[in-house]
């Protein structure tokens, strides 16, 4: 996927005025958010599970090399193969090499954010393969030639009417108008693709060091068909997705669906261990796992280590007022919302994604709902500090912050400046009670009026209310 995070501001303005998107995002807020709240309230131990998951993730990261080594050994013992990819280019070459060796013509894919991260589809298509996304949301955006706008609901930005138009044009069938009919049509089209596939590629929600199993969770069962009907199954996963034991998977399963879609559990949870054995009724002849680093080791040893706890539930973006207003495509890369505003600069470079950490209101909702308690507002704030220290922040903004810091660390000067500013702004807006234009604040006044201050600072009004104390 082409990196377009530098265009965040212009894209955000465009999507704010996109009526269809705003309608779709309204349904997201009313659905996932409300259901997550209900599910959390109905599970008394929900907060205790979050703390347990956070601690387990920290333990895994502390011993990541150990668990990855154990996982590799277990995969090999079951007849599978493990491939290590330092970056996106290496991961693509590994997968292309497997596909070329088996003369793959058709490749089916379950939903995998890592495959999006490494730009896998484009590479496979450029090498003459027919790539078919089997997750309904991914299939919809493949037909639309668009990237995902959400990590668990890739087509959340599409309305039912837009999907109907896509299917009518792509399938050449009579236009369907109900969700069940659209789902059935996609199911019929995809069915023959599963049987034609030479290679099936899925993600890996969890990788179990104890058994060498990969685990996927879906609501459609497409992942099962993708990985069992093709002759070759390839799992793409980040190195941080390993867990020590099978029992540990259940902890994260209790949090994932509740945090993501507000379900008690996903419809399908599938464990895959190695290739087909002699007495198995189905399964692939070859089983490969591609473990992708792509900047994760650097995160592991630095300030942003906590980001590796992420279980890709999407709760942070579901609750983010910025994401809810502009949608996922405004962020310009694979990972949108708060988690994307941290990951994109770290993977693609601070200067390539300058606006993302700064597009956050720091309201804290993302951190408060994260099932593994990642302090996302703190990490976003740290990215801003890094941009400032590396002088990526515009010079005028750096100078303004320096001036503000000078005043803020001198209380008498700061309060004097507050009083002067409050009185001048109140005077300027006394006729209409608002300010249409304000120097150095065009980012606000170009889009909305600024209410005129009362003429007294908050501290002055508070002291007056408290009788001068």
Automatic annotation (TrEMBL):
SUPFAM superfamilies xrefs: alpha-helical ferredoxin, NagB/RpiA/CoA transferase-like
One Pfam family from the record: LutB_C
PANTHER family for the chain: LACTATE UTILIZATION PROTEIN B
GO BP term, example: lactate metabolic process
Keyword set, alphabetical order: 4Fe-4S, Electron transport, Iron, Iron-sulfur, Metal-binding, Repeat, Transport
Residue span(s) of domain 4Fe-4S ferredoxin-type: 301-331
Protein name: Iron-sulfur cluster-binding protein
Upper lineage: Bacteria, Pseudomonadati, Pseudomonadota, Betaproteobacteria, Rhodocyclales
């Amino acid at each position: 996927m082409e990196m377009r995070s530098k265009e965040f501001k212009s894209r955000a303005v465009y999507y704010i005025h996109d009526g269809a998107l705003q309608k779709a995002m309204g349904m997201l807020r009313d659905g996932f958010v409300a259901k997550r709240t209900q599910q959390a309230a109905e599970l008394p131990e929900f907060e205790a599970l979050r703390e347990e998951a956070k601690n387990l993730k920290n333990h895994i990261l502390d011993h990541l090399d150990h668990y990855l080594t154990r996982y590799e050994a277990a995969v090999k013992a079951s007849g599978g193969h493990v491939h290590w990819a330092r970056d996106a280019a290496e991961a693509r070459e590994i997968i292309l090499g497997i596909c070329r060796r088996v003369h793959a013509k058709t490749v089916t894919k379950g939903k995998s954010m890592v495959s999006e991260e490494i730009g896998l589809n484009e590479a496979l298509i450029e090498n003459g393969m027919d790539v078919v996304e089997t997750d309904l949301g991914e299939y919809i955006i493949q037909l639309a030639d668009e990237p995902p706008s959400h990590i668990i609901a890739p087509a959340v930005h599409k309305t039912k009417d837009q999907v109907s138009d896509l299917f009518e044009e792509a399938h050449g069938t009579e236009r369907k108008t109900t969700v069940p009919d659209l789902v059935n049509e996609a199911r019929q089209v995809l069915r023959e693709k599963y049987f034609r596939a030479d290679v099936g590629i899925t993600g890996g929600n969890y990788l179990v060091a104890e058994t060498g199993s990969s685990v996927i969770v879906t609501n459609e069962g497409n992942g099962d068909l993708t990985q069992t009907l093709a002759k070759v199954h390839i799992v793409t996963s980040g190195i941080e997705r390993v867990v020590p034991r099978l029992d540990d998977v259940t902890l994260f399963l209790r949090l994932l669906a509740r945090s993501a879609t507000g379900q008690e559990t996903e419809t399908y949870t599938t464990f895959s261990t190695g290739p087909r054995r002699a007495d198995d009724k189905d399964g692939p002849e070859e089983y490969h796992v591609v473990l992708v680093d792509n900047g994760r080791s650097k995160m592991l040893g630095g300030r942003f280590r906590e980001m590796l706890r992420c279980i890709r539930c999407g709760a942070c973006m579901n609750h983010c007022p910025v994401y809810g207003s502009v949608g996922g495509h405004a962020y310009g890369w694979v990972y949108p919302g708060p988690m994307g505003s941290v990951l994109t600069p770290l993977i693609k470079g601070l200067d390539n994604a300058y606006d993302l950490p700064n597009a956050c209101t720091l309201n804290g909702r993302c951190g408060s709902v994260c099932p593994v308690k990642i302090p996302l507002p703190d990490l976003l704030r740290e990215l801003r500090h890094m941009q400032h220290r590396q002088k990526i922040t515009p010079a005028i903004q750096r100078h303004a912050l320096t001036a503000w810091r000078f005043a803020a660390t001198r209380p008498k000067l700061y309060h004097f400046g507050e009083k002067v500013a409050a009185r001048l702004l109140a005077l300027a807006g006394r006729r209409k009670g608002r300010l249409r234009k304000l120097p150095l604040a065009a980012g606000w006044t170009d889009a909305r009026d600024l209410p005129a201050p009362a003429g007294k600072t908050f501290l002055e009004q508070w002291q007056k209310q408290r009788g001068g104390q």
